[in-house]
Every structure is written in C-alpha cells, then in structure tokens.
Amino acid sequence: MKKSIASLSALLIAGSLFLSACSSDKGGNSANESANTPAASPTASAPADSGVIQASDLSKLPDTAKQRTDTIIVGLTDPSGAFTPYFHQSGYDGNVSSLLYTPLVTVDNKGVPIPALAESWDISPDNLTYTFHLRKDLKFSDGSPLTADDVAFTWTLLHDKAYDGDSQVPALHVKGGEAYKEGKASSIEGIKVIDPLTVSVTLEQPNASALTTLGSDVLSKAYYGKDYKFGQLDYIKKLHEKPVGTGPYKLEKFIPGQEVRFVANEYYYKGKPKTEHFIYKTSEGDTWQFLETGEIDFASFSATQENIEKLKSLGFVNILPYTPSTYGYLQVNLEHEALKDKKVRQAIAYGLDRQSIYVDANQGAGAVANIPSSPISWAYTEEGINPYKYDPEKAKALLDEAGWKVGADGIREKDGKQLTIHYLGSKKKDTDIFIAVAKENFAELGIKFEPEVFADFNALVSKVEGGDYDLASFSTPLLTDPADGLIQFVDGEIKGYDNPKFKELYDKGLATNDLEERKQIYKELFQLANDELPVIFTNYRKTVYAYNGRIQNLDVSPFNGIAPSLPDWYLQ
Amino acid sequence: MSTIGSEITKAGTAGTAPVRSSMWRQAARRLLKNRLAMLGLAVVVFMFAFCFIGPLFSPYTDNKIHLAQMNKPPSPQHWLGTDALGRDVLTRVMQAGRISLTVGLASMVLSVFIGSLLGAIAGYFRGICDQIIMRLADLLLTIPGLPLLFILGALLSDWKVPTEYRMYIVMLMLSLVNWPGLARMVRGEVLSLREREFMQAATVLGLRNRRKLFNHLLPNLVPLIIVIASLNVGGAILSESVLSFFGLGVMPPTPTWGNMIDSANNMIDFQKRPWLWIPPGFSIFATVIAINIFGDGLRDVLDPRPRK
Amino acid sequence: MSAFITKRLLYTVVILFAASLLIFSLYALTPGDFITGNIKLTPERKAELREIYGLNKPVLERYAIWLKNALHGDLGYSMAQQKPVLTLFNQYIWNSFLLAAVSTFLTWVTAVIIGCVAAYKQYSWFDTLVMVAIFAAMSLPSFFIGLFLIKILAVDWKLLPPGGMIATGSQATGLAYVKEVIHHMTLPVIVMTIMGVGSLARYIRGSMIDVIKQDYIRTARAKGLKERKVLFTHALRNAMLPAITLVGFELPALFGGSLIIEKIFNWPGIGQLYLTSFGLRDYPLLMGFTVLIAILTVIGTLLSDILYRVADPRVRLQ
Q1: In this structure, are residues B121 and B133 in contact, taking their beta carbons and an 8 Å threshold?
Q2: Which CATH superfamily is domain B33-53+85-307 in?
Q3: Nearest residue of C to residue A463 by CA position?
Q4: Is 0.90 topped by the overall pTM?
Q5: Which residue on chain B is closest to C308 by alpha carbon?
Q6: Where are the domains of chain B?
Q7: Among A148, A317, A468, A534, which residue's beta carbon has the most beta carbons within 10 A?
Q8: Could you report the per-residue pLDDT of B93-122, keeping only the tens digit for each?
Q9: Residues within 8 A of B (CB atoms), C 3-22 only
Q10: Is B6 an interface residue toward C (CB < 8 Å)?
Q11: Mutation for B interface: C21, C138, C302, C307, most B CBs within 10 A
C-alpha cells in the first residue's frame, strides 16, 4: 500500500511536469518555447514596449557566477541529443542546433530576410526561381569547405521518402521533388549547382516563404552524405551527437539530462565568438533557484508584476521584456449548428471577459489578441480591427438577433435546443483561470457551459480531432512569416471554414515578395478574420528574460532566439 | 499458551448473538475511556462540521471571482486571505473539505475492503485460489498507471459521463486495480496466522471455514487493516488532486484540498503566500492525524489478544 | 523449494507475455500518438509520417513486430530522441538507481529504528512526536518538502546545490567527481527518505506492538535476556514479517526513478525521461521501460515470497 501512495503522489508531480511540457499549447512537441513556466528556452520572443531594466547592484552577484570568466550558462528545458537540423523531433534540440549551424538566410527582428551564409540572392520575376550566392571561403567546423554542392545535397536529402522531420522544404513543390521522392529520378530537376558559390532552385508554384525555408541550415555532403542511400536515413541517427556545422559554437560534450557544452568555433564566418565556452543547462520547471544561486546566467519568466519585482530585488540581473511571436485562440467547432452563425461567435468574443482572464488574472503578463498575427510581426496592425471589448449587453443582443432566446431556466434556446458550449482545455493554470471566469461570463449570457479538462496536449488534440467539442484553447507555434499564422484557415486544419475570398487573399500574400504590398494584403486578411472570427482570438503572452548583469551585447531575436547575438556576448 | 487456550474457549462459546454484542459493547466502553482516541474522533467530527456546516456562515461563495481582491493576505474581511482570483480562501477550504473528506474516506474504505478480502481469501484457502488471486495481482502490478488514467479519461469523455460523477467512477476503478499491494500484505499476515496454535486448534475442533475465517482470523487481522487504512487516508485525499490533474477529478473552479495545494506549486506562492497552502495542508494534516490517532485507539480496543 | 521456484518462474513467463500485450495495447489506446501533437504538420504529412513509422498498422501487428524484435534484444529507437532505447536506459537509469538505492537503504534503517523505539515506548513523547512528524510529511505533497528544503538549504543558506547532479561545467574527475555527486544528491535523498520513512515506520511500529505482547517475548524476558537483545533480535525478526512482503516492491522502485524528486531537483533520471516520453507518446521507449519495470515487479514479488518463506519457517512451501 505504501507503494500505491507513492505511485499516486508520483502521478501528482506528473501533473506539474506536464504543465511545463505542454504549456506551449499547440506547439506540442515541436514548439521551441514553453509558455508560462519559467523554464528558459530562449527562442521566439521579441522586444515589447519597454526596454531593458539594468541590474541595480552587481555586487549581489552570487560567487558561483562571479568565478566564471569565459563561460556563459543558459537554462534549456530538455535537449535530447538529436542535434542535426531538420531531423530533431524536439524544439529544445532545435535550440541547440541553432548554435551549431548558421542558415543561408536569416531574418531581422521584424522578420525581414537578411543575408547570413548566403551573401545575396536573386528571385526570378515569376517568383519561381531562387538563386543563392554563397560567401567566399566558408568552412564547416571540421575545417572542410562549404560549397553549393552541400546546399544542393541538403535540399535533396529532405526530399527522401524516409525523411521524417518537419522541414517545410518538401512541401514547397520544388520542380522534380515529387519524382525524386517516389524514386523515379536520381536527382531533383529543379535544384542546380551553377558554380561552387552559386546554387539555384526552381519551384512549381510561387511561395513567398520559400526564401527563408530554403535558406536554412546547410549539411556537409562529405560528412552527412557519405553513407547516404536513397530511402535509408537511419545512419544519420548515429551522427546526431557528433555534429559538423557552421554555427558560432561547436559541440564539446553532451551529458544527457544535464548539460550541453559548447566551445567557440574558429571557422565561424563572422570570426570566433568572444566567449570561449557556452553551456545549455537542462533545467525543467522552476528556474528561480538556479538564477538566484548563480548556476545559470540567463532565464525566462512570465512577465507578471511580482516576477518582475522579484527579479529587480535580486539586483544582479538585467531584465529584458519580450513578447513571444505567437497568438492564442479558442478553436470553434464550425461544424456545429449554433457556432456556424457568425453572430454567435461574435457574441462569445464580446461576452468573454478576455481582459480579466488573460491580463488581470495573469498580473499583466499578457495582452488581448484580436487578429491572427503576433504583435511583433511587421504585418501587425490595429487599423480597422474590432477590439471586441468586454460587453455582455452587446453579446446578449447579438444572441437575440441570432434567434437564441432566453428560455424558462435562464438558458437560451432555439428550435427547442439549448445553447451549450462544450469547452476543452489541457490541464494547466491558465485553463483553470479560463474556466473559473468563463463559467461566470457564460452564465450571465444564458449559455450552458460544460468544461472538460484533458491531461496533456496529445489527449486534447485527439479529442478535438474527434470533433466532439464547441470551443478548445490553443496557441500557435512560433510564427515567422505572417502567412504562418494564417495557414490553418486555408489548409483545412480549421474544419468547416471555407472562405474563397480568404484563400484568394492568402495566395496573393504569398505570390509577391514586396513587403509593402504584402502588408496591405495582410491588413485586409486580418480585418476579414477579425470580423468573421473563424476562431476566437484570445491573447498574447508576455515574458521577461533575466540575465547576469555582466553579460554585454545580449540581444534576443524574436525569431531566432539568442543564436544571432550570442557570438558577440562577453562577460564584463 | 494458556491465554490462547482460554481465547479459544471464549471464542468457542461466543457463537450466540447476546454474548457477541456484549463483546462489542465492552470494546465501545474501552474506546470511550481512551482519551487520545476520543480526541481524534472529536477532531474528525469537527472537520466534518467545519466543512459541511461552516460554509453556511460564510459571507462569500467559494467560486465568486473578485480580481481586485486577488492574492490578499489574511485580514478581518478574509480571515485566511484570498487566492489568485480573489476568492476567499477560508470559504474554499471549507467547501474543498466536503469533497476531500468524502472522497478520501470512501476510496480508502473501498480499496482496503477489496484488498483485505482478496488477501484473506488467498491466504486462507491457499492452493488454486491463492494462485489465481496472486498471479492476477502480479499482472495488475505490471500495468502502468498513466495510460490507464488517460484511456479512462478519454472513454468517460466520449461516453458523456457528466464531469461531476467521473471522479467517483475513477476512484472505483482505481480501487479495483490498486488492491495487489494491500492484498499481499494481508495474505502474508493470514499465512502466518493460519499456522498459529489457535487456528490449528480451531481446525482440530472441526470448526467450519466461515466460522474460522470470520470469528477467528478476521479479528486478528483487524489491527493490521486499521493501520493500513488509517495510513491510507492521507494518500487518498491527496490522490484526488492527481485525478483532477488528469481531467478525471473535480472540475475547476470547484476546490478540493489537493488541488488547492497543487495550485501553489511554485516558488513565488510558496515563499510569498503561505496562506494559499497552509490552510489546505493543515486541514489534511489535522484530518490524517486525527484519523490515525482514532485508528490506533480502535486497534487497541479491537485487538483480540490479551492486554498487559 | 526448487519445485516451487520452477513453477513460479513458469507462471512468471506467462504473466510477462500477458502483461506485455496488455501494456502494448494500453499505450496504443492512449489518446493521441507520436504525430498528433506536432501541429506544424499538414494532415497529409501526418498520414505520410504514420506510414513511415508504421503507426497506421493494426495494434496486434505492431505488437508482433515489437515482440519479435524485443526477443532478439532489440528494443528499437526512441522516436523523439532518435537513440536506441537501451542506450537511453543506460544513460538515465543508473542515475535514478543511485538516488533510489541510497534513499531506500536509509529509509529502511531509519524506519526500523524509529518503528522499534516508538513501539517499545508506545504513547511516550518520542512516539507522539515521531507520529506527528510522520503525518506532517504524509499530508504535504513531496514537491512542497522539496521546495522548502531548496529554499532554505540551497537558496538562503547556500549549503547545498539547488539541483542537478554535478556543478554546471564541472571538469571534476575521480574522487572529486564522486564528492560532487554526493554533494548534489544529499537534498533529493533527504526528501525521498522523509517521504518513504513514514508509512514504513508505522507498519513496523504496528507489528512490533503486536509482537512485544506475544508469549515468546515474555518468555525471552523471563529468561533474563537483555532488553535490547529481546527487542532487536527476537521481536524485530518477527515484526519484520509483514514488512518483508514490501521488500519485493522496492525492486522495481529502485530502477523506476522518481518523477517528483527528479523534476524538483533537476536530477537526470529515468522518471523524468519516462514522463516526457509519455507526453510525446514515444512508444518504443515507453514499451521498453514499462516492460523492464514489469519484469522487475514480477521478480520482486517472487523474491519477497521466497524471502517470506525463508524468514517464517511456519509458513510451509507449496
């Protein structure tokens, strides 16, 4: 019996563990960012309105941190050791590989493409052919040269039929890609090596996100292609822990469940990084104690008032506010009669006190969302956007208009059927808050509210896929291009939403590479989504990064995390 | 061995109802004299009164949200402060106890009953009976709990069982799979009791199985079962929050002691807001210790072996 | 004896086959699979990946494949970590074992001492105090005890490290490494011992009280044996009998890892790995681990049955 108590309390903690494992909501096993848990996984956030709060008293720095002179330590939830880009299944491994590899094209803090390993690129007028010009004298971390062959090899490898990663390259419709995948061709027709520094790729249909998708990390053909046979990719698993890359750091040692140790890469194209050693320390859940004792130099926290106050009182950390590049929403079951009606959806948007749920109850660590875009994207706009401010009277009026009249027991009815909202959430603190407040909100509107909570993200998604729900809480994975936040409305993911105008605008937005033109198109799309509410937009999260005040030149890219600025970090 | 001999004589004549009831009455009288045990009982009764009657006197309801009042320390208005949604902690602790106490006690009783029954049967009858029960126990012990709970959660959801009943079904299911540990202990005890002189004497006297099992074996098992049962109460109360976690327990915002403690599972609440976790923690503590003290007293009183 | 063991071993094999099928089906029926959670994928890509991983095959066929490989000693690759399952076990299980072995040892020693003394001095202040402490520990979830000790001992007084197994970036080897690991494991071991000692001590106290009242103890005392000898040899031996049935349960626990403790103290153990893998539905790893634990459980029960028979000669072997 002792055992059964033990196992039950073991389950209890399983509880809090899932909190951190699944709080990236719809990110599931691939999101790089774990939301409200303070685990540091420094990817996907951007500067919010206010700037850095400087450390007030560096003398409070714990001795452990003071003694380090050429090492910086950052907490990371759970890297597993599969460090080859394109092949890792966990976003945390992605954080590791982002330091080991450099992409051809990266993006700036607004999401606009800028050169990295590729010095420049050309896009043909029909937006179908992309030509990349590599920098001269690029080298892999083993000293071997990087050429256009390596780039072509990387793209080809991703078209293998055994490829099981989540790269979007195979979905770009590269000319001849399908034939290669089916084994009908020995190479991909659309990929051409023009000279050792130039490589081009031709697509079958235009796609504005192709530049960054194609312009990603490069795998060495000599190293990763040595044992490559079509349809056989298992050999790569053996290379995961011995990466050969192009990033600012090289892997020194991986201690499973504990640390990933890096050492500066002398072949890095921008020159050797300023700090010789870097360590990702595995740290799940609460990282307060590690920051307070100086075991780590950098951690992320939810931007609640009291977290910020506590960080300030530590004195030795700089505080950097960030807004992750995602948005939260309530997926609506559009196949259910009541919710097909736009007015009912709008009524819910008006009738849910989103300000209380996502901002006030979170002590300010959030903001209300009204469009399918992250607030830090270059496409973000509030022009012509209805904020759906909390207004129960308006919500009631809309429900009346839609034909849902208050019945005898206070619940609205139409054609003899009661208006019921069957809500699904996954177990975490946010869900508890949502249910507590929504219960009151819906009671006021005269809607019967039936919440259900699922133990983890996978269980929630499979219930939603079964279609037995009305509302379900989700958040998007990291959004880089504005199209990322919209794709779920056109690719059939949101079942029952089929708006030709939306699709047309979506394709139009991807057919051009002109930023201003795209901005206009996305504004129109956001207004459309804001009015139609194919999902009910809920919230943006706010986080803060706290880091050792001795670190200089620290910056966190909203889309690429700490990787771009890391080579410049140094300890004062 | 004279004491055991006399016990057999006593038990042998104790077959008629009047004598038995006097035995129980005697036990009850002794229990009433045990001050510590009575104190334990008093605390348990108080906890029930506190939880079932207390909320009637509270000016607040357990789930009313009041964001302007969030995370306030204890004050004359809120004797135990307020939680993250501005709800009165005292009211919630009382309300929470209603579920925690019922569920904790009920699930303890159920699993102890199933476990002891199967264990006693296996140990007493041995042979094929023992083999079947114990090998089934082995099989059950190998089953991982997590997927079981997940599947149960999905099934109950698909079958549209109302959320407020799910917890009871799950508790029942858990008792049905959680008995092997307890059964093994009871069986062990029975195996050893069987070989004691008084049981052998009972066999020699030609008593029937039922009589041997209930009149002779069971009274000797009671001490062990009471220890196990009282120890299990705490675990059972806490296990409710585990179930909530899997979407199988009570739905938020309904409070239970377990989920109240669980929601304070972070450094900041732990350090800065002890009023969030001390009241539910103390309630569990008081209940558990009271039940155990009472259980100890009960055990002393019901122990058929001679007292010093 | 050997006939008994042979028979039991035979049963054990049968049970393990039944258990492995049952476990496999349970994992397969758990809502969601390895692909479900990755919402970056389009529905077509999801179908493609299920094909690659063989997740679209019927459960029985998947089980047959798994069993065939497992019998050949191949537990497959973890889907999420992309490493052989056995390699992962090797990387994580020993860390868990270290914690569990030390704390189990301490738990039993402490519980036996406390239980005996409390029984001997029943209702004394020592007994009462111990009882209160035990119940306090049982009424709070272990994460609270863990957080409390981290706050006091690691953050405020800086006596012990707040978590992990070695100091970050440590280059220590040999004896220095051992010292560092001991330093880091102190806190988790303390918490695990506190959590475990309570109920065990209560059981031992309970049976000790029973035993002390028995005739042979009085006989022993009457013979003029020293009180300590009576208590710790004659009485303890008999009082330990019910507890011995628990010994078998410790075997899987030694290798199973502790979910709570490993998480709070950031200990790189198998418990954490199991839980992460469960969230991801990483079937090969889940299967491998659960079957390993199942084997240990069955062996453990067998072991405790044998122990029981050795310890109590009155119980005849069947």
Answers
A1: yes
A2: MetI-like (1.10.3720.10)
A3: C31
A4: no
A5: B188
A6: 33-53+85-307
A7: A317
A8: 999 999 889 888 888 888 889 998 899 888
A9: 11-12, 15-16, 18-19, 22
A10: no
A11: C138
